[in-house]
Design goal:
Layout lengths: L2 H7 L2 H22 L7 H24 E4 L2 E4 L10 H56 L22
Antiparallel strand pairs: 1-2
């Protein structure tokens, strides 16, 4: 057997795809929800690093174990007649499709529902900040106009700029 066919038989490719999709969804959820709770970027980085580290054990686990009607068993101790690779493959395919549908739904919700309110909040915050900066700049730029005071002479008219 070739390596690729062995990876397919043991569902390693499907497990890797399912893991990648679920990890992407978790990263998106963390990226969206962590700022709501006041977290900075560090917890999101930790989630990404843990998901990357967990990818390799998941692939090794998929290589070493086989799903049978009796449950998970080591791959080298399982008869070919007892494996449920087609049903396991179909189950993994369904899981991948469900998670992809949830991910696309989450992406659409984030893009079309949350982004409008987020943009309005950003615009309002920018408006309030600009007003506060303008008031502060006005307070800082105090000046006094000194005009000559001459007794008995007329003050020349000030010409407006044309």
């Amino acid at each position: 057997m070739s390596l690729l066919s062995e990876l397919k038989r043991r569902n390693v490719i499907r497990v890797g795809a399912a893991y990648a999709v679920v990890a992407w969804l978790l990263i998106q959820v963390a990226d969206t929800t962590f700022p709501l709770f006041g977290f900075d970027e560090a917890p999101a980085r930790i989630v990404v690093i843990l998901l990357i580290i967990g990818f390799f054990p998941a692939l090794i686990f998929a290589w070493a174990f086989e799903l049978t009607p009796a449950g998970l068993q080591r791959d080298d101790g399982v008869d070919d007649g007892l494996t449920v690779t087609t049903s396991a493959a179909k189950r993994l395919d369904r899981i991948i499709m469900i998670v992809l549908i949830v991910a696309v739904g989450f992406f659409a919700f984030d893009k079309f529902v949350l982004s409008e309110s987020r943009e309005q909040a950003i615009a309002e915050s920018a408006r309030v900040q600009a007003f506060a900066e303008a008031v502060e700049a006005y307070k800082q730029n105090k000046s006094i106009a000194v005009l000559p005071f001459v007794i008995g002479t007329a003050v020349p008219a000030v010409c407006a700029h044309e």
